[in-house]
Design goal:
The protein folds into two domains: about 130 residues, 3-Layer(aba) Sandwich (Rossmann fold), CATH 3.40.50.2300; about 55 residues, Winged helix-like DNA-binding domain superfamily/Winged helix DNA-binding domain (Arc Repressor Mutant, subunit A), CATH 1.10.10. About 50% of the residues lie in helices and about 10% in strands. With about 210 residues, the chain is of the alpha/beta class. Helix 6 crosses helix 10, helix 7 packs across helix 10 and helix 8 packs across helix 9. It is elongated. The chain starts with 9 loop residues before the first strand and ends in a 5-residue tail after the last helix.
Length: about 210
């Protein structure tokens, strides 16, 4: 992904609490004085703004009325694939992280660290990911350039079963292999994709469309 030097032209803030929107704006405006800011209280309003304006970055909460953050992200990644998304979350549950990776969220920022949002936005705009993000930055850096790794149909099947959370014994039964062979293939996949563990392997699969 190419880096960018100028500030984003348009930034969309999405949260159902006006106080939060005002707070985010007050933090971000000094960092991006030339940027135009838009505000939405839910996913429906956000989509309407996105359809009418060429927004560069969307910063959003997950829990919102009418259309929550998950549905908004699904819609946005289909309709506006180049939009960069930053999620402000209360926690960093693994299932949530995997969902955001699947839908190519650029960064996850915990609400307890919202004071660092200026730096996060700058990194996302320039690099496409944030080094200060919760998990996503490290995972994105490690897998973002590995999309051309050649994988056999058997390897793809194995990755899908691993992503479903199935144990090696169950995978062995489904693939007609021994458990030792499955474990050997798993280690080979980690080396081949340059990932360090199962979580990163699943992130690789999500990022490269292997689980669709």
């Amino acid at each position: 992904m190419s880096t960018k030097t100028s500030d984003p032209k348009r930034i969309l803030l999405v949260d159902d609490h006006p106080v939060v929107l005002a707070g985010l704006f007050s933090i971000l405006k000094p960092h991006f004085p030339s940027s135009l800011f838009f505000f939405a209280r839910n996913g429906v309003e956000a989509l309407e703004i996105l359809r009418l304006n060429a927004v560069d970055i969307m910063i959003m909460d997950v829990s919102m009325p009418e259309m929550d953050g998950y549905d908004l992200i699904k819609a946005v990644t289909r309709q506006f694939p180049i939009l960069r998304i930053i999620v402000i979350a209360q926690s960093r549950a693994d299932a949530m992280i995997k969902f955001f990776l699947q839908y190519r969220v650029s960064a996850i920022l915990l609400k307890s660290r919202s004071d660092t949002i200026g730096t996060t936005v700058q990194e996302v705009w320039k690099l496409g990911y944030s080094a200060s993000s919760e998990h996503v930055g490290d995972l994105a850096r490690s897998i973002r350039s590995e999309s051309k790794v050649p994988l056999t149909p058997q390897s793809r099947t194995l990755i899908k079963l691993i992503a479903e959370g199935k144990a090696s014994k169950l995978i062995a039964d489904e693939m007609n292999l021994s458990e030792n062979t499955v474990n050997s293939y798993r280690q080979k996949l980690l080396r081949q994709t340059r990932t360090k563990n199962t979580v990163e392997l699943v992130a690789f699969a999500f990022k490269n469309g292997l689980l669709e």
